[in-house]
Amino acid sequence: MSEAHVPSARTRVVRESHRGVYDRATAYEILDEGFICHVGFVVDGQPFVIPTAYGRAGDHLYIHGSAASRMLRHLDRSVAVCVTVTLLEGLVLARSIFNHSMNYRSVVVLGTAVAVEDAKEKLAALESLSEHILPGRWAESRQPNEKELKATLVMRLPIEEYSAKVRQGPPIDDEEDYKFPTWAGVIPLEMVPGPPINDPRLGPNTLAPHYARAYSRKPR
Amino acid sequence: MSEAHVPSARTRVVRESHRGVYDRATAYEILDEGFICHVGFVVDGQPFVIPTAYGRAGDHLYIHGSAASRMLRHLDRSVAVCVTVTLLEGLVLARSIFNHSMNYRSVVVLGTAVAVEDAKEKLAALESLSEHILPGRWAESRQPNEKELKATLVMRLPIEEYSAKVRQGPPIDDEEDYKFPTWAGVIPLEMVPGPPINDPRLGPNTLAPHYARAYSRKPR
Q1: Domains detected in chain B
Q2: Distance from B40 to chain A by nearest Cα, in Å?
Q3: For the whole model, what pTM was predicted?
Q4: Residues of B in Cβ contact (< 8 Å) with A51
Q5: Least CA distance to B104: which residue of chain A?
């Protein structure tokens, strides 16, 4: 998991390069904690950025949903994309406006996404996507039928050209600013799941399953 | 705020078009609750998607930071962008895998972002950006000096070509699936601020200001 990885000119972190990290293990931690990405693609020179769900399976990302539709409607069965996953972790309040920042971990993956056409691979991709987002759910749901599989678009993107960027910890002020009389520190931010809300069409006293009540994105 | 708005062919919500909303008030509610966007731009045919902070001031978005740097390093003082803001609000668990979904509100703004060059406008843009993210903080911080202003990149994007997309509420299953014996409902997700963490270099017993202790993105 911790292979050496040489960033390409396109994924090298240029600005504040000390925040760039290139090992696969760090990138995968971030990709595994997130499940919403922003997919960028180009139509007639215009960039589009669409939020969509994804899953990681080995060294591939699978994305599906409306982003895939929009891409495939305009383009061929493969498309140059940028997939970005961002985990926001806090506001960083420095003494100077200039040194205000955010704590976050993010990954950028560049490459060519290809439509998954094979029915068996598509089903496996959907299962890995579902398990990525909510482990345990797939087995308890009504499985996709042939018509639904046909109506579902899944794209596969190899995780080859990528970089991660991480900023954590307290603010870093210019030395002469530390005497400036203002509060400084971090306001942590976290995506927190609430108690599950039953579908109104469920019977009374139906208890949500454990995977819904104990939902968490933290590493298991 | 609730002007009629005709989406362009590029921003019309194509898939699940019932989720598309085009009034400015809805888009601005979403833009005002968020403060991190994903900016898409194109270099040599390759899309890039970079997370960055933004602020709304009237009918413009201001973005700054590394996204602006990367764009401006490669491109001219103006660039075709797509700015996407996504507020994730829940996992939607249907009975069928196919009808699983997310609750979210998102806005896509297309257009040409222009570098803010004028020092006075840049300062005003930075103040509105700061106030957008953390109201009250600007006045209590050490103000930007001339050198810092020069080192800061700010881009301005008019909110003209845009659309919003909203999905809320319980799962919608196919009628024949409602008898399928599995739990269904929503796992709510919310970005929650934690108690502020003091910079270790602050004096002991320093209390974080109200705007940090009571931080919230909900409409004020």
Answers
A1: 17-170+194-213 (2.30.110.10)
A2: 6
A3: 0.92
A4: 38, 84, 86, 88, 104, 106
A5: A51
